[in-house]
């Protein structure tokens, strides 16, 4: 509207503000990490209320609107077991997209020596693999997946790699993986509502 020199209508302005408020509610819900059903119901109700106030008088794409509401509800109610299940599927996908070093490969043997005795952390069973790629990277997921890139192994000594692995596992143990999933659901939900 600004580019065309048009004045936005008050309804459009109100809708934009309501969508921003909805996004803020969803982000707060994701960062709040509600553990009790009552808290989850409160965040879901606030999200629904903000979504309903953002409805324009114009025609809506109800499919996008419903999808957005579903995504916002997922953001507010995602459990640890949900995060683990999603991580399991994501790790299977990532493993299929990368060349994984077999157990007999020197990179896999080195990693196995480095993490000997670290098969679990605080009850989380860890699953280590090496991706054969020159990138300098490593990651861990909520289901215990730990992947180290061969490029990182080429550039770092064993203690440095163990530090990186511990750092990545720390993200999982502190719930950062779950929070990232909640934020992604919230963003997707807000997009769905904005398009709806």
Instruction: Please give the share of residues in helix.
Output: 55-70%
**N-to-C span:** 19 Å
Got a strand count?
Answer: 5
Helix/strand structural class: mainly alpha
Sheet with the most strands: spatial strand order: 3-5-4
Instruction: List unreliable stretches of 5+ residues.
Output: none
What is the oligomeric state here? single chain
Shape descriptor reads elongated
Mean model confidence by pLDDT:
80
Please provide the ordered H/E string of secondary-structure elements.
HHHHHEEEEEHHH
The major beta sheet can be summarized as: 3 strands, mixed
Question: What's the helix and strand layout?
Answer:
Elements lengths: L9 H23 L4 H17 L8 H16 L2 H18 L8 H9 L5 E2 L2 E2 L1 E5 L6 E3 L4 E5 H6 L2 H16 L2 H20 L1
Parallel strand pairs: 3-5
Antiparallel strand pairs: 1-2, 4-5
Helix pairs in contact: 1-2, 1-8, 2-3, 3-8
Descriptive account of the structure:
This protein has 196 residues and is mainly alpha-helical. It is built from eight helices and five strands. A three-stranded mixed β-sheet has the order 3-5-4, with helices on both faces. A two-stranded antiparallel sheet has the order 1-2. Strand 4 and strand 5 form a beta hairpin. Helix 1 packs antiparallel against helix 8.
Features:
single chain, 196 residues, mainly alpha
Would you kindly provide a brief summary of this structure?
The protein has helices spanning 10-32, 37-53, 62-77, 80-97, 106-114, 150-155, 158-173, 176-195; strands at 120-121, 124-125, 127-131, 138-140, 145-149. It has 196 residues and is mainly alpha-helical. The strands form two sheets. Strands 3-5-4 form a three-stranded mixed beta sheet, with helices on both faces. A two-stranded antiparallel ribbon has the order 1-2.
């Amino acid at each position: 509207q600004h580019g065309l020199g048009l004045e936005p209508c008050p309804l459009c302005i109100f809708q934009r503000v309501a969508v921003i408020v909805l996004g803020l509610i969803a982000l707060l819900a994701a960062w709040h990490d509600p553990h009790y059903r009552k808290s989850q119901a409160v965040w879901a109700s606030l999200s629904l209320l903000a979504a309903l106030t953002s409805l324009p008088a114009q025609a809506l794409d109800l499919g996008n609107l419903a999808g957005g509401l579903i995504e916002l509800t997922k953001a507010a109610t995602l459990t640890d077991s949900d995060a683990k299940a999603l991580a399991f599927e994501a790790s299977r996908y990532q493993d299929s997209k990368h060349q994984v070093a077999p157990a007999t490969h020197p990179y896999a043997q080195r990693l196995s020596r480095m993490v000997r005795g670290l098969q679990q952390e605080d009850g989380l069973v860890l699953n280590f693999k090496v991706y054969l790629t020159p990138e300098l990277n490593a990651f861990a997921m909520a289901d215990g997946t730990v992947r180290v890139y061969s490029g990182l192994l080429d550039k770092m000594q064993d203690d440095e790699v163990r530090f990186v692995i511990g750092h990545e596992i720390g993200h999982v143990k502190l719930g950062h993986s779950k929070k990232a999933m909640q934020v992604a659901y919230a963003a997707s939900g807000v997009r769905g509502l904005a398009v709806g």
